[in-house]
Amino acid sequence: MSANSSRMNCRRSGVTVVDAAAALGVARPGLTMLLKGRRNLTPEMAVKFEAATGIDAELLVRMQLAFDMAQARKRMDEVAGGVRRLARAA
After folding, report:
1. How far apart are CA 48 and CA 45, in angstroms?
2. Residue 41 domain-assigned?
């Protein structure tokens, strides 16, 4: 997920990271890492966001998965460099 858009939405709404962490029942450092893009959104955290904001948890998880796939494809040689194609059975 886009870390910049998450932080901008918090600023626009007037919610501090401290307030958001307390509302979500998580530690502020962990939420900060998520908002800065240093930690991935877990399904559990997505459910907490849904409970706090009404934003669908499945949408948030799909967005995280799309981001993760894009990052993996950017590193295709590194990720799949030693992989060889399997032969199809006759």
Report:
1. 5
2. yes
Q: What whole-number distance in Å separates Cα of residue 34 and Cα of residue 16?
A: 14
Residue type, 79: V
Whole-prediction pTM: 0.74
- CB-based contacts of 33: which residues, under 8 Å, 6+ apart? 39
Residue 68: which domain range? 3-80
> 44 is written with which tokens?
């559990």
CA angle (24, 71, 37) in 5-degree steps:
30
How many whole angstroms separate alpha carbon 68 and alpha carbon 28?
Answer: 23
Query: 28 Cβ partners below 8 Å, 6+ apart?
Result: 17, 18, 21
Residue 66, both tokens? 């799309």
Q: Quickly state the pLDDT bin for 49 (edges 50, 70, 90).
A: very high
The answer to the question of residue 90 being in a domain is no
Q: Is residue 87, in this structure, part of any structural domain at all?
A: no
